[in-house]
Amino acid sequence: MSDVRVACPRVLDVETGRALFDAISGQRIEQGRIVALDCAETETVDSQGGAWLIAIAEHLHGRQSDLHIEGAHGDVAEYLELVAPGLAPMPAKERADQGLFEEIGHYTLAWGGEARDFLNLCIDALYWTIIAPFEGRGFRWGLLIEEIHEMGARAVRIVALMNFLLGLIIAMLSAKQVENFGVTIYVADLIMIGFARELASIMTAVVVSARTGAAITAEISTMKVQEEIDALRGMGLNVTQFLVAPKLLALIIVMPCLTVIGLIAGIMGGALWGVFILDFQPSIWFDETLNAAYLDDLMQGFLKSFVFAVAIALIGCHNGLRVEGGSRGVGLMTTRSVVMDIFMIICIDIVFAVIFYYLVA
User: Fold this and answer.
1) Which of 142, 173, 187, 355 has the maximal Cβ count within 10 Å?
2) What CATH architecture applies to the domain 4-87?
């Protein structure tokens, strides 16, 4: 296979070096071919010209080709001897295959480190949210009001709409199943019990995790990427007190309120089908709904909403503080936060189901 021969200019500096790089990179050089650079006429090479030679060599190595320099003499030859290590291809590093125990150890250390960081964040957040304000160590009450408005007031419409539609769907499907038995009025009981125990808190938590949890992660991770978190630490401010505590307390306050709104919206969605499609009188439908409302069911949903709020806030802050890289890292951590929120919501719901089934019921 014949070589590609290129003549080096008489003076190799930043301008001629860039032109030489463009000339070589613009050619279609097949894999494995050698580019011979004829320096017989070259009289001067400066440091910037040498840097362009290294760039040319790296470009050719990326195409599985080599750069050979021929005909250099005098000072040019001496200078090229100095930059010769940069012109040679880097030896390929052999990747050692990890065994089973190495992989287990690697993932164990990674998960253990993340669990330790999350536990430390939980302890700090609970301290700065519950204990520190009573010790006179300060709390950002102004930010708390802003977070309550952002997390609560601006989420009312989407929470109400999602629960209303869910109540309508459940009433529609359940009425079809029980109409053959003549007990369609019990659809009102089903809607009330289902939303009081499970659906209002679960659906509200999912909506909040996709809306507020993702926003918390995106905000904090963007601050981390832009080194604003480091700036806060440099000014002597506690990041947990400054950022995490107001978000945690705000979500604890608004989550039960949103759950109540979701409960009412779900009941109204079921009532829409019961009154206008099943032809029940509103008084009869709502009497049956109220008769199915038990304090234990309502308390189960409200308790879940508090725990969901803590989980969503802490997971969002945890992922935001662990971001690495630039904008891609922000996107990945935001997605990770929503996935972790939904997974934890299901896990917490399972725990509550076991407790109320075996210990309370």
Assistant:
1) 187
2) 2-Layer Sandwich (3.30)
Residue ranges per domain, the chain?
Answer: 4-87, 123-360
Kindly report the average pLDDT of the chain as a whole number. 86
**SS3 for the chain, per residue?**
CCCEEEECCCEECHHHHHHHHHHHHCCCCCCCCEEEEECCCCCEECHHHHHHHHHHHHHHHHCCCEEEEECCCHHHHHHHHHHHHHHCCCCCCCCCCCCHHHHHHHHHHHHHHHHHHHHHHHHHHHHHHHHHHHHCCCCCHHHHHHHHHHHCHHHHHHHHHHHHHHHHHHHHHHHHHHHHHCCCCHHHHHHHHHHHHHHHHHHHHHHHHHHHHHHHHHHHHHHHHCCHHHHHHHCCCCHHHHHHHHHHHHHHHHHHHHHHHHHHHHHHHHHHHHHHCCCCCHHHHHHHHHHCCCHHHHHHHHHHHHHHHHHHHHHHHHHHHCCCCCHHHHHHHHHHHHHHHHHHHHHHHHHHHHHHHHHHC
Check: pTM over 0.85? Answer yes or no: no
